[in-house]
Amino acid sequence: MNDLGQSLTEALKLIVSLDADFRTIAWASLRFSVTSTVIASLIGIPAGIALATSRLRFKRFIEDLLNTLLAVPTVVVGLFVYTLIMNQGPLGRFHLLFSPAAIIIGQTVLIIPLVASLACSSVAIVNPIVRETALTLGAGRLRTTLTIAGEAQAALLVACITAFGRVIGEIGISLILGGNILGYTRTITTAISLQTSKGEFTLGLALGIVLLCVTFIINFVVRRLGRRSVWVLWA
Questions:
Q1: Cys bridge to 185: 79, 115, 149, 178, which one at CB 3.0-4.6 A?
Q2: Comparison of pLDDT for 143 and 89, the residue scoring more
Q3: Segments forming the whole domain that contains residue 48
């Protein structure tokens, strides 16, 4: 118990003092997660909106496929991207393996289905009166779709924040594609895994505290925005 208390005290000191290694690792995780979330949102939100407002014959099948992809482990996604960017893979000539770009690509692939699925669900529950009103006023398909998306903007933001929460805590992709290189591709989760395996808990605890704080903030924001989105969509 004394050892745990001492490690916790030292971990808090690292956070307060903004230790160089701690700062580098935390910043790398945030940078990779934010970048992948932005890219995935730019792809997934339009795809989800298009799916929700379309009348495709296989619409239900596509929705089921997206929901199925949500359960794919991060290591499987990591292996899939690894086969694409390895030296012998189709993208091997770009030498992306064990780089920040590789992690960002893997994380983006991981959360695109999540963003698309949540965006589709968000738009699907918009009050039908919005669509009918837009069509009655002579709005075209694009304008009508943008109007519906505007009504669901709070829920779409929740989708983006949820996706960020998914990648900030993943470890499989970062290990397989990034290689856990200090100062380059080492993230919070991979650093915690390494420090724990070495029996050095101070830095791992400090990073764990930061990860817990980030997760708490994400959950708090999602809950608040979720309440607002339900009220807006059905108002």
A1: 178
A2: 89
A3: 2-234
